Every structure is written in C-alpha cells, then in structure tokens.
C-alpha cells in the first residue's frame, strides 16, 4: 500500500486551498510522510478537530494507502 | 456478544487512562504505539494497554468510535485525547502533564 506525495499534496490543496502546506517524505517508501498545514479553516477548532479535517480531506487514504503521516496543524 | 461500541465504551469507562495500541506496553509492535506508551511510562502514569492486533473488531471499531483513522488512541476519563502526533505535541508543551493534573491522575513530573 503506498501513495505518491503529489497525490497527498493535491488532496490537501483541494481541502485547504488557501493554506500553507509543507510535505516531507520521511522514508522514501511512499508510506511515511510529515505535513505542516497552516490554515484559516482551523480557527476555533481544537487539535483533534483540526486533524480530523485533514483526514477528511485525505478521503479515507489515512490509515490505508497512507500508513503514516506526522501531522502538525496551525491556525493562520 | 455485545455490540462492539458497547464493548469499547465499557473498556473506556472502566479505565481512567487507556491506550488502544498495536502490541502491548511491554512489547509494542509499532513505532507510534511505542512512542505514546513510552511517554506514559516516562510520566509514570498507570494505564491500560489494549492490543488492537488481538481483535480485528476492536481494531476497526475504535476508529469508527472516535472518528479517528489510526491507532494508537489515548483516552483519559472517557475523553479521546489524541493519537501519536497530538500526544507528543502535548507532552512537549506540558499540556499533557496539565491534563493529568486537572483530572487528578497521578504522574511524575520530571
């Protein structure tokens, strides 16, 4: 199970069009990535809600094709 | 057999601090589960480890229960606190320690 970085980036761009998004490939195996997302959509949301918003944008890939995503979310 | 959600809420209700993880605290079988388990051990918090690898129904059920797609998952006083990223961030910012203090759960602050 794997996923290309471009695909993650595209899904996140669609979910958070105005956000600053930084994605890093942690292991070069298309399975372990980190992402820092700064978005105004996170305003007033707690961390769990923010991460759930990101997982929703990833349309079910999280925990399936995408095994590991180290995620940091911040309000913009 | 009770419905999986009832079974999960029983576990969560009966354990002040419960970590759904891959493997056990003594033998974690995933880096993320080990990281959270190690944070709890470092803080010397009493906690229950639930090995989701032993029961596919729990492994999938817990993801629906909390609307969270991965394991590990930490619950304190029946509240979902987060997965590996959030627990690590909270630990570094001392928010996890504050949470335990607020919920009167004993830990060693070092």
Strand-helix topology:
The complex is a heterodimer of chains A (76) and B (110).
Chain A: H1 5-15, E1 20-25, E2 32-39, H2 47-57, E3 68-75
Parallel strand pairs in A: 2-3
Antiparallel strand pairs in A: 1-2
Helix pairs in contact in A: 1-2
Chain B: H1 4-14, E1 17-21, H2 31-42, E2 48-51, H3 56-66, E3 73-76, E4 79-82, H4 84-92, H5 95-102
Parallel strand pairs in B: 1-2
Antiparallel strand pairs in B: 1-3, 3-4
Helix pairs in contact in B: 2-4
How does this structure look, described?
The complex is a heterodimer of chains A (76) and B (110). In chain A, 29% of the residues lie in helices and 29% in strands. Chain A is an alpha+beta fold and 76 residues long. Chain A has a three-stranded mixed sheet. The model of chain A has no long low-confidence stretch (mean pLDDT 95). Chain B is an alpha+beta fold and 110 residues long. Chain B has a single domain (2-102), classed as Glutaredoxin (3-Layer(aba) Sandwich). Helix content of chain B is 46%, strand content 15%. Chain B contains five helices and four strands; from the N terminus they run H-E-H-E-H-E-E-H-H. In chain B, helix 2 (31-42) runs parallel beside helix 4. The radius of gyration of chain B is 13 Å and the shape is globular. The model of chain B has no long low-confidence stretch (mean pLDDT 96). At the A-B interface, helix 2 and strand 3 of A face helix 4 of B.
Question: How would you briefly describe this protein structure?
Answer:
The complex is a heterodimer of chains A (76) and B (110). Chain A is an alpha+beta fold. Chain A has helices at 5-15, 47-57; strands at 20-25, 32-39, 68-75.
Keywords:
heterodimer, A: 76 residues, alpha+beta, GMP Synthetase, Chain A, domain 3, 3-stranded mixed β-sheet, 29% strand, B: Glutaredoxin, 4-stranded mixed β-sheet, 5 helices, 4 strands, 46% helix, globular
Binned, the helix content of chain B reads 40-55%
Question: Main beta sheet of chain A, described?
Answer: 3 strands, mixed
- Give the H and E element order of chain B: HEHEHEEHH
Q: How many domain modules of chain A?
A: 1
Mean pLDDT of chain B: 96
- Count of individual helical segments of chain B: 5
Q: Which fold name fills CATH's third level, the topology of chain B? A: Glutaredoxin
The most extensive contact between chains is:
A-B, 13 and 12 residues
Distance between the termini of chain A: 33 Å
The fraction of residues in strands of chain A falls at 25-35%
CATH architecture of chain B: 3-Layer(aba) Sandwich
- What is the helix/strand order of chain A? HEEHE
Q: Please identify the structural class of chain A as seen in this structure.
A: alpha+beta
Global Rg of chain B: 13 Å
Structural class of chain B: alpha+beta
């Amino acid at each position: 199970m794997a996923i290309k970085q471009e695909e993650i980036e595209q899904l996140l761009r669609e979910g958070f069009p105005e956000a600053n998004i930084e994605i890093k490939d942690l292991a070069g195996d298309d399975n372990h990535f980190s992402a820092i997302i700064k978005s105004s959509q996170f305003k007033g949301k707690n961390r769990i809600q923010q991460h759930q918003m990101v997982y929703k944008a990833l349309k079910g890939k999280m925990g399936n094709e995408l095994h590991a995503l180290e995620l940091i979310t911040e309000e913009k | 057999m009770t419905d999986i959600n009832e079974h999960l809420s029983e576990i969560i209700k009966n354990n002040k601090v419960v970590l759904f993880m891959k493997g056990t605290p003594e033998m974690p079988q995933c880096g993320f589960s080990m990281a959270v388990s190690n944070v709890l051990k470092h803080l010397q918090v009493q906690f229950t480890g639930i090995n989701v690898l032993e029961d596919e129904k729990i492994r999938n059920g817990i993801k629906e229960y909390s609307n969270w797609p991965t394991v590990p998952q930490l619950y304190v006083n029946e509240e979902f606190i987060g997965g590996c990223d959030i627990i690590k961030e909270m630990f570094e910012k001392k928010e996890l320690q504050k949470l335990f203090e607020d919920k009167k759960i004993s830990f060693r602050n070092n």
